[in-house]
Amino acid sequence: MKNIDAGTHVKGGSVYLDDIPLVNGTLFGAAYGSPVAHGNIEQLDVTEAAQMPGVVRIFTYADITGENQIGGIIPDEPLFAEGQTHFCGMPLAFVVATSNEAARAAVKKIKTAITPLPVITDPREAQARGELIVPPRTFTLGDVSAAWQQCTHVIEGRADTNGQEHLYIETQGAYVIPQENDVLKIYSSTQGPTAVQRAVSRSVGLPMHMLDVEITRLGGGFGGKEDQANTWAALCALAAHHLKKPVKYSLHRMDDMAMTGKRHPYSSDFKIGLDHELKIVAYEVTFYQNAGAAADLSPAVMERTLFHCTNSYFIPNVKATAYSCRTHLPPNTAFRGFGGPQGMFVIEAAIAKAAAVLDVPAAKIQRQNLLHTGDEFPYGQKAQSEAHACWNKAEEWYDTAAIRHNIFTFNTANKLYKKGMAMMPVCFGISFTKTLMNQARALVHVYTDGSVSVSTGAIEMGQGVNTKIVQVAAAVFGLPADKVRIQPTSTFRIANTSPSAASATADLNGKATWMACTAIAGRLKEVAAAELNVNVNAITFQQERVYVHGAPTDWDWKKLLMAAYAKRVSLSEHAHYATPEIHFDGAKEKGHPFAYHVYGTAILEVTVDCLRGTYTIDTVKVVHDFGASMNPAIDQGQIEGGIVQGIGWMTMEEVIYDAEGRLRSNALSTYKVPDIYAAPKEILIEFLDTQQDNLAIFRSKAVGEPPLMYGIGAWFALRNAMLAFNPAADIPFTTPMTPEKVLLALYSKPANGTIVAHENTV
Ligand code: LUZ
Ligand code: MOS
């Protein structure tokens, strides 16, 4: 089935925040962000700004009617800076004016006197000073300290991954329209309607039942709007509440980039021990997460780093420790993979370094340690599938022996161009790591004209969740897709939603939809059975018709609905789904947190121009475990997008803050994302269809986040190509691998203690 938004997308008819027709009298907001990362605010002077044409009012913390607090997991994030500023871009004031231009012009006239305080941008420095968001956590399996003795090789190192800008095409924003009796209608570009509702409730001081957060769709989220849409909605709501006028704020791209958090940079130390058969016997890792100035979702992101620190491998002895470090950057936040990719990069770096020391291909170590069914993860859950399934199929279908041979031949024949390849297995856990968040609701109405209306907590952000929910309802009722409509997400229709995140949105909301539709269908079957005088189990619905024992009757869908309505049978249902089987004990750090895991393996091939340091990603070949995909076109799109986004993070996207905590890569002229030239020339995806049962909707496994991590292989493929040019090259495990870094490394000499790689390791 085609994505139901395809038509309006190509015709420009899809409605985003900026497409909502403006209500008469709408005012426009713009935030003034702190120019200093850390300091005491001595003075905030808005007199000149207030006199600018069109300015209606300028709000600061003094105008807050509720609490100056929008923190989620931890209440440590004021809406407006008060007394001190903690990051560049932290809102100090909110200008409201009669036009966008007037609001932005007035922002430029605001003056501050801020006494600077020391700025920390490095997570290790923050940790050394005891600046932690939450106490550190450690996951353990077996006994690492005893295990080192069993290892024939022990290799240590350090790995650093940089941040990543979300770059959703639609920037952050909100539009708040006051209703009677102080009720607020809040349009927000958010993945978390309830998060927005809570933040507004707390900061404006209104109960949640007065706040209707409504979303038709987002122009992308990628995690950036899981928690960080709250600020803009709260600012607009506060102004709308004071002024009794509609207030809209849609961020300028550069303000969005400067004021919002990104993927967390991590700095990590690893120690890996192997035996003579290349089995990884022990792995010790310490993660320093750069959380930024407030908790935001960092503790949860840190937790997922620990969950995925061994990626697709079984390691019997593991000790993984993570620190969430408070720095003076904008609070970093969810980003596709949610800490998982950061953890996986480190184990892949450890394996690559071990491979170089032992003079074997990394793939040999990788394959030797892949998870088997029943193997235990460091958090206590047991693997339910073979990580080998995708790996072996990838080796077979794509003929890795031939790929290696071709690369060897090419590299022998060429001096200035070198090719490299890497295998990237992925194992990603599906479910919010916080068990309580794994719940969802759906409200389904069947109208007497035969049309069906579905409301859930799911947010459509281009990932196709609404299309999948249509498929669920249409399948249960035996209706064509155009009889089912997904309504905009609204906190008045569906309450207490979890954000659309963790790859789990289609599963959670799809299952709730299935339950609601099945309940209504059950009542309709009773009606049909009575009318047709047959056993209820004989009834099915197909092609808008009642079937008995698989044969059509003269009862069509509408006739049945009218009969049910006449008998006063309810044609509506509100259903609640909570993922079964999952649990986690935070004191023991053990449990069964994930409904299931998604597996896959990618083979990435690159060519490096060793004169210029530039490179191309030639091909990405994937075998991906879909379970039983309910929409292969959408799922393939998610994989392609995830791969390109992951490659961007690993190669060209470079977030740069200076020592004063100012974002220097603050526009698309200085922050590069993959375009069509940087994207792989070829992406091949083979579906691993399995008969195995799982907890996914229609057994169609979650697909949002796992493919991003295939992109990690690009970094290692580049490393291998570089080593083919200069086996003594010093290539630190730092990302992104920009052409500048490639060039410097290609002509580098080995650092003290670095192992010189040999031809057969690459
Ligand atoms: N958000 C969240 C997430 O709150 N918890 C999670 O486990 C998660 N995982 C991935 C993406 N967002
Ligand atoms: Mo996301 S990182 O699932 O909001």
From TrEMBL:
Cofactor: Mo-molybdopterin; [2Fe-2S] cluster; Mo-molybdopterin cytosine dinucleotide; FAD
Stretches assigned to the Aldehyde oxidase/xanthine dehydrogenase a/b hammerhead domain: 11-118
Keywords linked to the UniProt accession: 2Fe-2S, Iron, Iron-sulfur, Metal-binding, Molybdenum, Oxidoreductase
Top-level taxon of the source organism: Bacteria
GO terms assigned for molecular function: 2 iron, 2 sulfur cluster binding; iron ion binding; oxidoreductase activity
Family membership noted in the UniProt record: Belongs to the xanthine dehydrogenase family.
Protein name: Xanthine dehydrogenase large subunit
Organism expressing this protein natively: Chitinophaga rupis
Taxonomic lineage of the native organism: Bacteria, Pseudomonadati, Bacteroidota, Chitinophagia, Chitinophagales
